[in-house]
Amino acid sequence: MLVLANAIDQMNRAVASVIRWLALIMVLVQFCIVIGRYVFGFNSIAAQESVLYMHAALFMLGAGFTLLVDKHVRVDVFYAKVSHVARRRIDIFGHLFLLIPSMTALLYWSWPSVRNSWKILEGPISVGGIEAVFLLKSLIPAFCILILLQSLALLVHLFHEKSAA
């Protein structure tokens, strides 16, 4: 199980190492949009939507890595002040009773929309936009799966840490 958990960690690291470049590309595209609009009087809805797509991909696909490196949003009213054992218990509870069920529910309830979007190859958000809303919606199940896998890997690490102690 530990080997599988480490493989999931590596997968999320690999995804993060690829999508981190979207931040730079997104800034450059946005810069070109602003220059095009205010200097040359040129506007492109597709270019504007590409920034939206990159922004969504950056956050949705990077969430698993964020969870891996423990940089996610945490409500740590008590977490920072408790012992390591209590933190581990809070983490296990959070994964088993909050994160995994919520990601499973999100995956279940979003899947029909994603499936229908692929069925009709859902078109652009705006006239002249990118004709690939189905790809944008596909980020939802990808997000859920990456988070679910990383959560399971973290649980394996937490239980392995307990048995090693």
TrEMBL record:
Residues 26-159 form the Tripartite ATP-independent periplasmic transporters DctQ component domain. Pfam families: DctQ. The lineage of its organism: Bacteria, Pseudomonadati, Pseudomonadota, Alphaproteobacteria, Rhodobacterales. The keyword Secreted does not apply. It comes from Roseovarius marisflavi. It is found in: Cell inner membrane. The chain crosses the membrane at residues 21-40, 52-69, 90-111, 139-159. This is TRAP transporter small permease protein. It is a multi-pass membrane protein. It comes from the Bacteria.
